[in-house]
Specification:
Layout (H helix, E strand, L loop, with lengths): L1 H9 L2 H13 L26 E7 L23 E3 L6 E3 L3 H5 L4 E8 L5 H10 L12 H9 L9 E4 L18 E3 L17 H21 L3 H17 L14 H7 L3 H14 L4 E6 L8 H25 L6 E7 L2 E6 L5 E4 L3 E7 L6 E3 L1 E2 L6 E3 L2 E2 H12 L7 E2 L5 E2 L14
Parallel strand pairs: 1-7, 1-8, 4-12, 4-15, 5-6, 5-7
Antiparallel strand pairs: 2-3, 4-11, 8-11, 9-10, 13-14, 16-17
Helix pairs in contact: 6-7, 9-10
């Protein structure tokens, strides 16, 4: 029995679900719910002003100099020009005219730094507050939110990642039920979420009953939490299949004017999906936008990439405000690091973790506030330094997670949501 129980640990929920669903249920959506189980509702920590997060992650290292922290007349700016904003003395890249007009609604942190200068460890640190370790995997912020605050909508996953890539930390050492539901293609939402052709509702229910009996008997014999999780996962998936909340994933239900406002690209439509999901009380939605690794041709690629971000971000902020959602939603924009002031021989900018910029907006955040500063050329932090764990501690505080509370891994090692990070109190409203 011990050997069987041990081996059950080695079976991934994803593979188990895929096989059993195809053979027994006649549906193929279940693998997407490998990280889903019914969330136990934890009591929300007091003091949080946001109860949901839209986390926009710029994968590859977004250039702060060509977006949120330009340095005109310094010799490092290159051809990227600047534009004025309503915040006195604060400039943005010429490629961000929409955000520039809205700058009094957001906070910029221009003194962020990371101790990781390579992509994979930088992304890991940004998401978890910890450096990668061979012996353990740490949970990302979405998992922490579910673990500490519970799932708001029982029918729909509380942690969703849109275009997040394959290396997302997910639930880390926490139970897989706290991990994100991945959405790869916004246009398809959750594919194959209907009964397979030829499978009637009656047949489906009969198969469900059989699976339920099989699962109960198996769990009675081997009462391991991961074995039990298989059955819980089916319940989650089926509940969503039969719920009106499944429509949240279908962005074609939005009118064309709204879709166009966000931009017809994948990132813009991903931001629209994020709005639809938090509207249905999803706790945490991450939307990825990659391609920021501009070692080559930075000044050709920036004019292509930044307007996409500018359009989607400004549309998202305005849409949330109009719908009354911004008062309870925290919007985060960040990257693993910035890009170097020095322009290399390929007209590019290299990795630069010493100084970069992130943005916060919405619930619990000051408006029109600039925290900290990089130096004259954007090479290092000149004022009020903020480390990545500090930034994440600030996010945690805004949503009401106790940054000092210890959660134990399976090996009984204690961890906190932001490692040793300290909340940047100055940005809090």
């Amino acid at each position: 029995m011990n050997e069987i129980t041990r081996k059950s640990d080695e079976i991934t929920r994803r593979n188990f679900a895929a096989t059993l669903a195809r053979r027994c249920l006649g549906v193929s959506m279940v693998p997407a719910f490998a990280g889903l189980a019914n969330q136990a509702c934890a009591a929300a920590a007091s003091g949080g002003k946001a109860d949901r997060v839209i986390y926009l992650y710029m994968s590859g290292g977004m250039s702060h100099l060509d977006t949120l922290d330009p340095k005109p007349n310094t010799g490092v700016q290159g051809p990227t020009k600047t534009i004025k904003t309503p915040v006195p003395g604060v400039l943005l890249s010429e490629h961000m005219p929409s955000l520039a007009k809205m700058l009094k609604q957001v906070t910029l942190i221009r003194s962020l730094s990371s101790d990781q200068g390579a992509h994979a460890p930088g992304r890991y640190l940004a998401h978890t507050s910890y450096s990668p370790r061979a012996t353990i995997r740490h949970p990302a912020m979405g998992a922490w939110m579910l673990h500490e605050l519970g799932q708001k909508n029982k029918n729909i996953p509380g942690n969703i990642v849109v275009a997040g890539g394959s290396n997302h930390p997910g639930a880390g050492y926490m139970d897989l039920k706290y991990g994100p539901l991945p959405i790869g293609d916004v246009s398809t939402g959750i594919p194959n979420s209907e009964l397979l052709k030829g499978v009637t509702e009656a047949q489906f229910n009969k198969r469900l009953s059989l699976v339920s009996k099989f699962g109960k008997r198996f769990y009675d014999l081997y009462p391991h939490k991961k074995v039990k999780g298989y059955g819980e996962m089916y319940s989650d998936a089926i509940r969503l299949m039969r719920s009106d909340d499944l429509k949240a994933f279908d962005i074609t239900q939005e009118d064309q004017k709204t879709r166009d406002k966000y931009g017809k690209d994948k990132f813009g439509q991903g931001c629209l999906l994020a709005r639809r999901l938090i509207e249905r009380d999803v706790r945490f939605v991450e939307v990825g936008y990659g391609g920021w690794d501009t070692h080559n041709d930075n000044f050709d690629r920036i004019p292509e990439k930044v307007p996409v971000l500018d359009k989607a971000l400004s549309a998202l902020l305005q849409d949330l405000k109009t719908r009354g959602l911004l008062s309870k939603t925290l919007v985060v924009l960040t990257s693993e690091f910035g890009r170097s002031p020095k322009i290399n021989e390929r007209s590019g900018r290299d990795h630069h973790p010493a100084a970069f910029t992130a943005m916060l907006a919405g619930a619990g955040v000051k408006q029109g506030y600039i925290h900290g500063a990089s130096d004259k050329i954007g090479h290092g932090v000149d004022k009020d330094p903020v480390r990545v764990p500090d930034f994440n501690a600030t996010i945690a505080t805004i949503v009401g997670i106790d940054t000092k509370k210890e959660v134990f891994s399976a090996t009984r090692r204690p961890f906190t949501v932001a490692d040793d990070g300290e909340t940047v109190a100055e940005v809090l409203a």
